[in-house]
From TrEMBL:
Role according to the record: Binds to single and double-stranded DNA and exhibits DNA-dependent ATPase activity. Underwinds duplex DNA.
InterPro entries per UniProt: AAA+_ATPase, DNA_recomb/repair_Rad51, DNA_recomb/repair_RecA-like, DNA_repair_Rad51/TF_NusA_a-hlx, P-loop_NTPase, Rad51_C, RecA_ATP-bd, RecA_monomer-monomer_interface
Domain RecA family profile residues, every copy: 138-309, 318-380
Coiled coil stretches, renumbered: none
Organism expressing this protein natively: Lingulaulax polyedra
Protein name listed in UniProt: DNA repair protein RAD51 homolog
Amino acid sequence: MEGQAERRSERLAKKQRVEAPEEAAAAEAVVAEAPAAEGQVAQAQEEEERGDEPGITRLERLCAPTAHQGAGLSKADLNALIDHGIHCVESIAFMPLRKLQDVKGIGEQKAQKIMAAARQLVPMRMVSAAEMLQMRRNMIQLTTGSTQLDRILGGGVETGCITEIFGEFRCGKTQLCHTLCVACQLPIENGGGESKALYIDTEGTFRPERLVSIAERYGLNEEDVLENVTYARAYNAEHQEKLLAEVGGVFCESRYALLVVDSATSLFRTDYIGRNELAERQQALNRFLRKLQGIANEHGVAVVITNQVQASPAGGPAAFMGPQVTPIGGHVISHASQTRLFFRKGKGETRVCKIYDSPNLPEGEAMFAIGTGGIQDAEKQ
Ligand SMILES: Nc1ncnc2c1ncn2[C@@H]1O[C@H](COP(=O)(O)OP(=O)(O)OP(=O)(O)O)[C@@H](O)[C@H]1O
Ligand SMILES: [Mg+2]
C-alpha cells in the first residue's frame, strides 16, 4: 500500500509537470529534433506512464531478462498467469510465493524468479513512521458529498482500504455508493480521485439515473460520468466471488479509484441458509473479503461495501446504538473492514452517520441528508 501511495504522488507530480506549458513545449522540441525516434519516444513515454499508474504495472515487464528487472517470461507463461486471474505485477508482488506455483507451468524456481522481479518492480520496503505519515497526507480521500460527513471521516473515504457502511433499510447506503461513483471522478483538489468507479450490485438497486442527477449537481458531463462507471450485477454468492477475478483485470486496464459492493453480505445470507450452513457461509464470506482487501492493496482503490443489520438480543454489544441492531457477518466482516460506519434515520428526513470502528478516527457522529444530487449536508434541505 505504501508503494501505491508513493507512486500515486509521483503520478500527480508528473501530471503537474505536463500541465506546465514551458516544459511541455521543451518536450515537444526534443521530439521534433529526432523525428525518426518519435514513435519510440512516444511508446517509451506511454510505457513509463503506464508503469506509474497505481496498480498497473504490466505483466509484459516480466518478459524482460533478469538483468533488466524482468524474469525472462515467455508469451505462454504470460497467458498462464492471465488464465489464472493474474493481470498485473502488483497481483504477484502481494501474493504468497506458494500461490504462484499453482499457476500452470510455473515451478518453484521460476516462481522465485518471478517473485524477485515483481518485488523489484513493486517495492514493498520498510518505511519510517515519518515517511508513512507523509504518504498518508498524500493519500487520496473521496468526498461523500456532505461536508459534515467528510469532517468526521477526516476528509472523506480513504483509498487503499475497505470502508463498510451498515444500517437499516432506506438509511442511505446505496445513495452514498452512487454519490461516491460520481465524486471519485472529480479533480483531486475537489475531493475526487480523477478516476473511474466499478459497482458490483447484488440487490438490483443500482440506478444510472441517479448518477445523472449527481453529475448535474457537480456540473460534470453526464455522458462522461456514465461512461466512467462500470457496472456488474452479481446473481449469487459464487458469482459475486468470481466477479472479483475479473475486477483485477479491469483495474489493470484503466485507472479506477473506487470499488463498490452493494451489498457485500446479502447473497451470502440467501445462499447459505440455516445453522448447519453457517460455518460454510462465514468461510465463503471471509474468502470474498480477503480478495477485496487484496484488491484495495494492489490497486490502491477505495473499497466501499454495504451491509444490513439484524436485531440483536437486548443488552448485546450494539445496545448503545439506540435501535438494538447489529451488523450481519459477525467477526469475519468486523475484522475485514478498516472503517465501519453505522447509518440510521434521524429526525424528519435526516440521516445520522456514526463512526463505529476506525484505526484513526474518534467515535464521531454527523447528520446528513439525501437529495436529488445525492448525499448532502442536512442544513441544505
Ligand atoms: N432522487 C432522490 N432524491 C431524494 N431522495 C432520494 C432519491 N432517491 C432515493 N432517495 C431516498 O433515498 C432513500 C433510500 O436510500 P438507500 O436506497 O440508499 O437506502 P439503503 O440504505 O441502501 O437501504 P437498503 O438497506 O434497503 O438497501 C429513501 O429515503 C429515498 O427517499
Ligand atoms: Mg441499498
